[in-house]
Design brief:
CATH class of chain C: Mainly Alpha
Shape of chain C: globular
Largest sheet of chain C: 2 strands, antiparallel
CATH architecture of chain C: Orthogonal Bundle
Strand content of chain D: under 5%
CATH class of chain D: Mainly Alpha
Strand order of the largest sheet of chain D: 1-2
Number of strands of chain C: 4
Strand order of the largest sheet of chain C: 1-4
CATH architecture of chain D: Orthogonal Bundle
Order of helices and strands of chain C: HHHHHEEEHHHHEHHHHH
Oligomer: heterotetramer
Number of domains of chain D: 1
Largest sheet of chain D: 2 strands, antiparallel
Structural class of chain D: mainly alpha
Distance between the termini of chain D: 41 Å
Chains: A alpha/beta, B alpha/beta, C mainly alpha, D mainly alpha
Largest interface: B-D, 42 and 47 residues
Shape of chain D: globular
CATH topology of chain D: ABC transporter involved in vitamin B12 uptake, BtuC
Structural class of chain C: mainly alpha
CATH topology of chain C: ABC transporter involved in vitamin B12 uptake, BtuC
Helix content of chain D: over 70%
Strand content of chain C: under 5%
Order of helices and strands of chain D: HHHHEEHHHHHHH
């Protein structure tokens, strides 16, 4: 590890309790710019709860979240998003009736909302238009720009998710299973995209595809039943006896 | 646009003599009554009564044949202005007849006043129609909410009751009726100890019946009509109050509802300007004719419709069919004694009937006349500047 | 928006503008009132069709606008339009702000019912208290004036004024819907969760939509009061909230012209089935015809009356494969 | 208010609450479980009440009469009606926007109300309770309580219990509840969801009609009666939490209490109290008292 890495997002002892059930138990992790931090674990291990707490959809019952050095534990999701936190969802949450481009443009608009300017055409907004063009291109969807998003293939929709995420120009990316349900070719394309994004962002990747995770992640955290059982480089995790027993062994 | 307007005005000027000629053409009667919803049966009865009188005159009034234009007012005041405008501006009716619902009648009164169209109200009892809204071209063949209530107040006081409770729906007609009762009752030395009300159109009375039992008044006065009247009378009897506290009401409590109320309505006392067994030659003739024509027994609403036609007839005859002579029309009506099945009556200066209010008792399926509760009772017509 | 749609809208407004030249006085009155309901329907369309908030209390705003116009008018002479109109809209908008601030905490059907609850509260205030004349309603004796320019007591100026309001509201909403604000509302309708994740604080957006909608409904109420010169608690009843909802669904949700189309169609259908000239004595059962035609329209026109031209083409030409991109919904009007 | 009066008022509140539940219970199925915003619910209630009035003479002349025979015949007709209506008017609507169903049920209200006017006229009618339930029992020195009202309360409790048991304890109940949360899942289990919906709809209509028939002797039968109960039914179902039978029961009782004591203690505000109650509850618990599950 380099000296004085730039930590963009930090979770410190995050917990979430649902009634009697402790879904996430004192999880801490750091996301640094230029790295991919993967979180793996079985279904119900608390990965989604964790990501929801980081993005602000859920308030934690304990612990704190820091974004770019600020304590954002009490911030709402939109506020965190505007401060540079982008996320994609496990299930496609695009706007199916809008065009691909409009999906990205609307996302980009969050940066310059200007809702009071009711007489201005949204498509005349130079900032969001530029950001949308850039993100569509980056995600490789330029040819499909004017198509209704609902008509895209599954893989393309996943790409669009990332593009929408990028359109808000975030520093931190929280990606919830971006590879879910993708074919080999699409997976390959997505991994290329992620590798490209890695340099300029801090990325949290929740993913089931182990091959992909071990290929791209710089750091892996393994969760079981809401707790972290191992965290470190891919090699460290691969060789960790606890992980072998608790997770990879069952796989 | 200006050119067009000038030509339109010119066209109107040419057409004016034609319009004059209409005075000998058909007389257009605009019936604005409820034909759907809760009051649909009342609307039908009023129309039947009106048509009966016209038929008796050979289908002509003041020498002019009658043509009807009907509008369903749905008892909805928010649509009333449009509905009445339809009759006035589209169909150019000579006279408006309507309606049952007070709010609708208020809207009609305004349009009638603004457009100077004749209006005869065949039911709605809102005090204001012949009070603050009174006008030379507005007449009423029915009653004000105040009238039967005031008479009942006097009756209750005369029967020696000291403490009364009133109960009604929370709306203007109910309030006006209760005020009338209070006025009559307190004039006779009684005291209204509590006014109870149910939010309109709720018909859940149980809580207030219990309240009445706890208050133990000498008498209960009520103003309900239609479905609510049926339910109230039945609930009152079922709660056992009928035995111990006499229930008095404005006549609508037991009009057109006796079939539905059954034995629970037996012996109830109500006041109204009409009763089932007046047994006068005039009324008998009317009832026979009505029953023959419609295969139905007439009710107070039919009488009001019938008398609305009579008022129109008296006025129209006096001006020989020329309804533009509003002042003469009004004068003739004001001076006439209207030979109603309810008994002859005259119109007050504010154009509301000055009429006998009968004390009636429910016997079988009839509202039997016991006595005249108040002779030639006139509405105080508060706020009328005419 | 397709060019044919724009053409349709322009033609419709042109027809409305020219209508008084050919119409009878009654027709002018009638269409004035339908235009008032058109404005009312447009206000709801902003919430239901554009933002996805099904409000079942819109009549409260109409009623408050109308009552404000009456109660704020001085007794001794006409008020100036310049302050009475904004005041009425403000009153309705303020109640919308209050109602929205609380009811937006709930979602879906619960939201529908909370909006109903708040409108019923307003209804019972005017129904059960003498504040606004009680159940018999209250008259507007002096209609507001704009100097000597505009005499709203006469039909044609009233028509022109209402038409102007309708046009302004339509243009305003069309602009709003293509603006950043409008696109954000559209995003909220389609996927609110995503909007929040992207960084939009959706609550103030929805609240702003609510307030604008309330103020526009208040404008409709103001026009109603001025036109009729008479307001009644029934203006706030849930029947009216329901009817305006029916209008915009009938016309076609998601299109401003759908709201207008719905308002006109609903009025015309009533007019048609109530017509004694056509149905004779059966006209008193006009509910039957109205009900059946509504049922028929649901069965045949899944997207409402705005879809009629397309359905006709479809029937005439048979189904065509859609060229890619036609399913896009770029701007709602 | 003395103790005796207070107790009687409590009884009134309970009784009114149960009556409300009876009227609203059909809606918990169609609205709560199928998610159809059924504005025609009041019309079904109205149809029930008119059936109680119109069928009684027919039943008397053909089968020798009886309140319960009329009830049975009405129920059979109601199930048929519900089944047919679902087939004719709703089966093609589920894939559509929810508000299309609103439009459809609005159309149905108008049609039903007008058919009622054409077939049975516009006058008010009373319906007599069955002879064996026509009596009253004494309550305090002055008041009596009709036995029939107690009978209604009993019927309501039975109905609530029955619905609760059917929905939570039987196979079909589980399928219905599963179908309300996840159509695809139920379909993938090989259950005919269309048939299931038809049954639920028919049952909902039947319960509404049943409520109308049972309530007719108390409420009497008059034009527009359906519309007047419609909104309060939605209030009951929504306060209780959509799809929850016990929620609806609790909500109905709550409204009964608020309405009864509101009329006595706060008469100026009695009309609005129910709505204030609903707003408060939903602001406190945005998913109603009992979230369905």
């Amino acid at each position: 590890m380099m000296t004085a890495p730039e930590v963009l997002l930090r979770a410190d002892g995050l917990s979430r309790r649902w009634g009697g059930l402790l879904a996430v138990d004192r999880v801490s992790l750091d996301l640094q710019r230029g790295t991919v931090h993967a979180v793996i674990g079985t279904n119900g291990a608390g990965k989604s709860t964790l990501i929801n707490m980081l993005s602000g959809e859920l308030t934690p019952t304990g612990g704190r979240v820091e974004l770019l050095g600020q304590d954002v534990t009490q911030w709402s999701q939109p506020r965190r998003a505007r401060a540079g936190l982008g996320r994609s969802y496990q299930r496609n949450t695009i706007y199916p009736s809008f065009t691909v481009f409009e999906n990205c443009r609307l996302a980009a608009q969050a940066r310059t909302p200007r809702p009071w300017a009711w007489w201005q055409d949204a498509r005349q907004c130079p900032i969001s238009m530029a950001a949308a063009y850039a993100s569509v291109e980056r995600a490789g969807l330029t040819d499909l720009r004017e198509l209704a998003a609902g008509l895209l293939s599954h893989g393309q929709k996943r790409q669009l998710e990332i593009a929408m995420c990028l359109a808000t120009e975030p520093d931190v990316l929280l990606l919830d299973e971006p590879l879910a349900g993708m074919g080999a070719e699409e997976t390959e394309r997505m991994l290329l995209l992620l590798a490209e994004l890695k340099t300029s962002h801090a990325t949290l990747l929740v993913e089931h595809d182990m091959d992909a995770v071990f290929r791209i992640a710089d750091c892996i955290t393994v969760m079981v039943n809401g707790t972290v059982i191992a965290s470190g480089t891919p090699d460290f995790v691969r060789n960790s006896p606890e992980v072998r027993v608790a997770y990879l062994g069952e796989h | 646009m200006n050119l067009l307007r000038t030509s339109l005005i010119a066209a109107c000027a040419i057409a004016a003599p034609l319009a004059m000629a209409q005075n000998t053409g058909k007389l257009k009667v605009g019936l604005m009554l409820p034909y759907t919803g809760t009051y649909a049966s009342l609307g039908t009865a009023i129309e039947n009564g009106f048509r009966l009188y016209v038929t008796e005159q050979g289908g002509k009034i003041g020498g002019r044949e009658i043509e009807y234009v009907k509008v369903d007012d749905e008892s909805d005041p928010s649509k009333a202005t449009d509905n009445v405008n339809k009759l006035v501006k589209r169909d150019h009716v000579d006279v408006l007849v309507g309606s049952v619902h007070s709010g609708v009648a208020m809207a009609m009164a305004k349009v009638a006043k603004d457009s100077n169209t004749l209006l005869i109200v065949p039911n709605a009892g809102a005090d204001a129609v012949t009070g603050s809204m009174c006008a030379p071209n507005i007449f009423r063949s029915s009653f004000t909410n105040w009238q039967p209530a005031f008479a009942m107040g006097e009756v209750a006081a005369k029967k020696g009751a000291k403490r009364a409770v009133t109960i009604t729906h929370k709306y203007a007609a109910g309030d006006e009726s209760v005020h009338g009762f209070r006025e009559g009752f307190e004039k006779g030395g009684g005291q209204v100890i509590k006014d109870l009300s149910v939010p309109f159109p709720s018909v859940e009375f149980q809580a207030l019946l219990t309240e009445i039992a706890a208050l133990k008044p000498d008498v209960v006065y009520t103003f309900f009509a239609g479905g609510a009247a049926v339910k109230f009378v039945k609930d009152y009897a079922a709660a056992g109050l009928k035995k111990s506290i006499p229930l008095y009401g404005a006549g609508f409590l037991t009009d057109g509802t006796l079939d539905a109320q059954g034995a629970d309505a037996a012996d109830l006392l109500t006041t109204l300007h009409y009763a089932d067994s007046l047994n006068t030659p005039r009324d008998n003739a009317f009832r026979l004719a009505y029953a023959k024509t419609y295969k139905l027994q007439p009710d107070v609403y039919a009488v009001q419709g019938y008398d609305a036609a009579q008022i129109l007839s008296i006025g129209t005859n006096a001006v020989k069919g020329d309804l533009n002579k509003k002042a003469e029309f009004a004068l003739a009506v004001e001076r006439a004694k209207i030979d109603s099945p309810r008994g002859p009556f005259m119109l007050s200066r504010s154009h509301n009937p000055v009429q006998d209010i009968y004390l009636r008792q429910v016997v079988g399926k009839e509202n039997k006349m016991l006595s005249v509760a108040s002779k030639a009772l006139a509405d105080p017509a508060r706020g009328c500047k005419m | 928006m397709k060019r044919t749609d724009i053409l349709f809208i322009v033609l419709a407004f042109a027809a409305l503008a020219l209508y008084p030249l050919v119409a009878e006085p009654y027709g002018i009155d009638r269409v004035t009132k339908i235009m008032v309901f058109g404005i009312f329907a447009l206000s709801l369309e902003l919430l239901v069709g554009s933002t996805g908030l099904v409000c079942f209390g819109q009549a409260a705003f109409l009623g408050i606008g109308a009552y404000a116009a009456v109660l704020l008018s001085p007794q001794d002479g006409p008020a100036s339009l310049l302050w009475l109109l904004p005041a009425s809209m403000l009153a309705a908008g303020a109640y919308a702000l209050f109602m929205g601030a609380l009811s937006l905490r709930t979602r879906g059907v619960y939201f529908i019912m909370v909006t109903l609850a708040f409108s019923q509260m307003a209804f019972y205030v005017v129904h059960d208290t003498p504040l606004g004349g009680g159940t018999d309603g209250i008259y507007l004796t002096n209609k507001p004036m704009l100097g000597t320019l505009l005499d709203l007591d006469r039909s044609v100026p009233m028509y022109a004024f209402t038409f102007g309001c309708l046009l302004l509201v339509f243009v305003f909403l069309a602009l709003v819907l293509r603006s950043r604000f409008g696109r954000a509302l559209a995003g909220i309708r389609v996927n609110e969760q995503r909007m929040r994740a992207t960084g939009f604080p959706t609550y103030p957006y929805k609240l702003a939509a609510f307030m604008i909608s309330g103020a526009i409904a208040g404008l409709a109420g103001f026009l109603f009061a001025v036109k009729d010169g008479f307001v009644n608690p029934e203006l706030m009843s849930w029947h009216l909230s329901g009817e305006v909802l029916i209008m915009i669904i009938l016309g076609g949700l998601g299109h401003l012209r759908g709201a207008l189309l719905g308002a006109f169609a609903f009025a015309m259908l009533q007019e048609f089935f109530k017509s004694e000239a056509i149905f004779g004595d059966f006209a008193k059962h006009w509910h039957l015809g109205l009900g059946l035609s509504i049922i028929l329209s649901v069965a045949l026109l899944p997207r409402g009356l705005v879809d009629v031209p397309q359905q006709i083409l479809l029937r005439l030409l048979g189904p065509r494969p859609k060229p890619p991109g036609t399913a896009t919904q770029k701007s709602p009007p | 208010m003395d103790v005796a009066t207070f107790l009687i008022q409590c009884l009134n509140a309970l009784q009114y609450g149960l009556l409300l539940f009876l009227v609203a219970s059909g809606l918990t199925l169609i609205f709560g479980i199928m998610g159809v915003i059924n504005l025609a619910h009041g019309s079904f209630y109205m149809i029930g009440a008119y059936m109680a009035y119109a069928l009684a003479p027919i039943v008397t002349s053909t089968f020798g009469g009886g309140f319960f025979a009329t009830l049975l015949l009405g129920l059979v007709l109601a199930v048929l009606l519900g089944y047919l209506l679902e087939w004719a008017f709703f089966s093609f609507l589920y894939e559509r926007e929810h508000l299309q169903q609103v439009l459809m049920t609005y159309g149905l209200i108008l049609v039903f109300e007008e058919c009622r006017s054409l077939l049975l006229g516009d006058t008010v009618h009373g319906v007599a309770p069955p002879d064996m339930l026509a009596g009253t029992i004494a309550l305090g020195q002055m008041m009596t309580y009709p036995v029939y009202r107690l009978f209604i309360s009993g019927v309501c409790l039975l109905l609530a219990l029955g619905m609760y048991l059917v929905l939570t304890r039987t196979r079909i109940g589980m399928m219905i509840r599963a179908g309300s949360t996840n159509r695809e899942m139920v379909q993938s289990l090989g259950i005919d969801i269309k048939f299931l919906y038809r049954i639920v709809f028919a049952a909902g209509v039947a319960i509404a009609v049943f409520a109308g028939m049972i309530a007719a002797p108390v409420s009497s039968v008059y034009p527009g009666m359906g519309n007047s109960v419609l909104i309060i039914c939605f209030v009951v179902v929504v306060i209780g939490g959509i799809g929850s039978v016990r929620g609806a029961l609790l909500a109905a009782l709550l409204i009964g209490v608020v309405d009864t004591f509101g009329k006595v203690l706060l008469p100026q505000a009695s009309g609005v109290l129910v709505y204030v109650l609903m707003a408060l509850i939903l602001l406190w618990k945005p998913d109603g008292l009992f979230k369905a599950g």
